[in-house]
Protein: Conserved membrane protein, possible homolog of CAAX-like membrane endopeptidase
Organism: Clostridium acetobutylicum
Amino acid sequence: MYRLKNKLKTHQVKLFLIMTFLGTYILWGILLSSSKGILNKYIYLNNTYYTFLRILGAAMPSIIGIFLTAYFYGKKEIKKLLQSLTKWKVNILFYIAAVFSLNAQIRIVEFACKLLGMKVEVAMNMQASGFKTSSILGIMTLFLAIVLFWGPLEEKLGWRGFLLPRLQSRFHPVFSAVVIGVIWSLWHLPMFFLPNTGYNSIVEYILVTVILSLEMTWLYNKTGGSLLIAILVHGFDNTYPLILGFSGKQIHKVDLYQVF
C-alpha cells in the first residue's frame, strides 16, 4: 500500500486532472442528458437537482484537490491549503489590481471594436440573472452569489491551490498559467452544450481564460499564495459581463467572451 501511494504521488498532477474531469463531466453530462430529453422527468433546467449537480460539478477541482492533499500530505497541508482562502493581509495594491484589471479588459474590448470600425458605448444593465443591478447593494449581492455558487469559490482550491504550485515547481509561472488556462477552458466544455449558460465560441473562450489565468497566477505569486485574491478576480470577471453591456453599430450588449 505504501509503495502504491508513493507511485501515485509521482503522478498526482495527472491523477488530479483525470479525477477532476471525470467527476465534472459525469455530473454535467447528466445535465446535458436532461437538456436533450433524457432524465428530464427528474432533472430539468434550474430545478433543485439541476442546480445542485451544476454546483457540485463546478466544485470538483476543489473536492479532488482537497482529497489528494489529504491522502498524500495529511492534515497539516490541508490546513495550509484552506488558510490560503483567508489570506487577506496583502498589499492593498493587489486588491486594486484585482478590481481595475477588469477596467483594462473593458478598454481592450473597446479598442478591438474600434479597430473593427465599431462605435462602442458601455451601458449598464438594470437587471442580471434575477438581481437588480441599479444599486450598489444589488451589485454586491450578485457578486456574492457568483463567488459562492458560480465557480470562483468552488474551483480555486483545485486549479490554484493544488495544481498551480505543482506545475510551478517544474515549469515557469507563465507556462504554468497558460497550461492551466487551456485545461481550465476545456474543463468547461460541457457548458457550451447546455442551455442558457452564455458560453459561445470555444476558441475565444480559451484565449480569454488564458489571459485570466495569467493574471491570477501573477497575483497568486505576488501575494504569497493568496487564493482570496484569485477568487475576487474570478468573481469580478464573472460579474461585470452581466452588468456592463457594449453597444455599437454592429454589436449590442456583447460581453468580453463574445468580442474576442
Summary: The CA atoms of residues 120 and 248 lie 5 Å apart. The chain has one domain: 2-259. The chain has a mean pLDDT of 79. The longest strand covers residues 121-124.
